[in-house]
Design a protein that fits this description.
With about 210 residues, the protein is mainly alpha-helical. The protein has one domain. Helix content is about 85%, strand content about 0%. It has 10 helices and no strands. α2 packs antiparallel against α3. The chain is globular, with a radius of gyration of 18 Å. The two termini are about 25 Å apart.
Length: about 210
């Protein structure tokens, strides 16, 4: 795989990562309410899910998801239901005006990190569009042969690094706004917007059709 192909893939992956999506809105929701460490836990979940999708794509299981209407529909609707559940939960909290609880006890902090990691992982693991991106990208940037698996994992690694850098910058940015974002009015507004956005992404995911 030539350097020009690697550079082209990084450029395409960067545009994909920077485009508005569930990951960015999850970071925007997590950091103001749970802290910077929880935001980085979200990112760890993203990275884990990307490698999972990359492994599935390399092994060819993702092709089954795209070509099998039943398998694709199951994963698609589970992912859509999860996104909508997050959205409705955020909307309910915003409407009811649930008070913000400040994390102080170590036990709660550990639970928050675990839940933040799980949210980041599930948001991407149940999104078949990630596998579809890899399936669309791999044939364009690698040559089928003995090194195709290694080249595929290199592309997955580059994608995860781009995502980690971009979302880490988002985490640091939102952490600087903590003094503003801790106000109850801001958090209700943020949860309301987050709820609408996640429901929108869930409904959009439910209408996705395999095009590979």
């Amino acid at each position: 795989m030539a350097w020009s192909e690697i550079a082209t893939f990084v450029f395409v992956a960067t545009l994909l990562v920077m485009s508005p999506g569930p990951n960015g809105f999850l970071i925007a929701k997590t950091v103001p309410t749970s802290g910077r460490r929880a935001g980085f836990a979200n990112i760890a979940g993203f990275v884990t899910a990307f490698f999972l999708h990359g492994l599935l794509a390399v092994l060819g299981i993702s092709i089954l998801l795209v070509n099998s209407a039943m398998a694709f529909s199951i994963v698609k609707f589970i992912g859509a239901a999860y996104l909508c559940w997050i959205g409705f939960k955020a909307l309910y909290s915003a409407i009811m005006g649930a008070p913000t609880v400040i994390a102080a006890a170590p036990a709660r902090r550990r639970r928050t990190l675990l839940r933040a990691y799980a949210e980041g992982f599930i948001t991407n693991a149940l999104n078949p569009k990630v596998s579809m991106f890899y399936l669309a990208a791999f044939p364009q940037f690698i040559t089928i042969g003995e090194a195709s698996a290694a080249s595929s994992f290199l592309l997955v690694f580059l994608h995860t690094m781009v995502a980690a850098i971009w979302f880490s910058a988002m985490v640091l940015l939102f952490s600087k706004l903590t003094s503003i974002s801790q106000s109850g009015r801001f958090q209700r507004w943020l949860k309301g917007v987050t709820g609408v956005v996640f429901i929108g992404f869930g409904l959009k995911l439910a209408t996705v059709r395999p095009n590979i």
